Structures are given as C-alpha cells and as structure tokens.
Amino acid sequence: MKMKIVIGNDHSGVDFKNQLVGHLLSKGIEVINVGTDSVDSVDYPDIAKEVSKKVLEKEANFGMLICGTGIGISIAANRISGIRAALVTNELCARLSRQHNDANILVLGARVTGIELAKSCVDAFLSAEFEGGRHSNRISKIECGCTNGVIE
Ligand code: RB5
C-alpha cells in the first residue's frame, strides 16, 4: 500500500511545508495537507491536534508537524495520548526517533532547520523502522503515562 503522510504547520512554516510536500510527492508518497496555507496567524495546538487525530485514526502512516522552532507544536502533540512526536534537527535523531522511540510524528522547525537538511531528516525518518525489543518496554511505559500524570 502507498505510504501516506499527514502534514500540518502554523503560519511560520507555509513555504517550508510546501517544499516538503513537493519532496514527499516526488518520492511517490501521498500527502494529506491540513494547512495552514496562509501566512495569517494560527495557533499551533490546533494544527497539532488535527494531524494527531489523523495519525491515531490511521488515516496516514505518519504525521509531520512544522512551526517556527518546532517546540510549541511538539509540546502540543505530545500531550495527546498515543502520540510520540519527535522534534529533530539532524538525520541521526530523525532515524533514531523511529528506531528507538517509535515516533509517529516528525516535527521540524522552519526557522531553525534548512530545507535541504529537513528533507534529509524526512528521508531518514521514513526509511527507518522501529527496532522493538528493549525499546518496546520503554514505549509501553510512556503509553501508560509513566505516572498517570502524578509524580509521587
Ligand atoms: C509563531 O510565531 C511561533 O511562536 C511558533 O511557530 C513556534 O515557533 C512556537 O513554538
């Protein structure tokens, strides 16, 4: 089955997102673009929620999120149960976020990471697979909320 990516960004990442969409399409990957496609200000938690929903409902294999730094939108996405959003700035972290952390959303900062490096991060993320084994136990602990939200 064809790989499908759901991608979303705030106003700071429109051009960056468009370039990544072009890159994904050129690799034969289907893309669901949830926007924004305007430079008018939007709130990144809304975009994080929309992409996360589609990932959790398995409308796409993975999500990609972009804001200025990637920080706000990754914080927002990681508040959603079942989402493991990895903010990366290099290929190694992109690859390891799949291999070790089973990340289901790749996050990039449009004001931080150059577009060619970002494309390489996308490629590294998509070509790596979760290794399971010792990492599965750690992912299970994350999915149990580690502490159910309470630090005793
Ligand atoms: C928007 O100006 C900016 O705050 C946002 O894109 C992001 O960098 C937040 O973390």
Automatic annotation (TrEMBL):
It holds the Pfam family LacAB_rpiB. Its EC number is 5.3.1.6. The active site is at C67, H100. Belongs to the LacAB/RpiB family. This is Ribose 5-phosphate isomerase B. D-ribulose 5-phosphate binds at D10, H11, G68, T69, G70, I71, G72, N101, R111, R134, R138. Keywords: Isomerase. InterPro entries: RpiB, RpiB_LacA_LacB, RpiB_LacA_LacB_sf. One of its GO terms (biological process) is D-allose catabolic process. It is an enzyme of class 5 (isomerase). It comes from Streptobacillus felis.
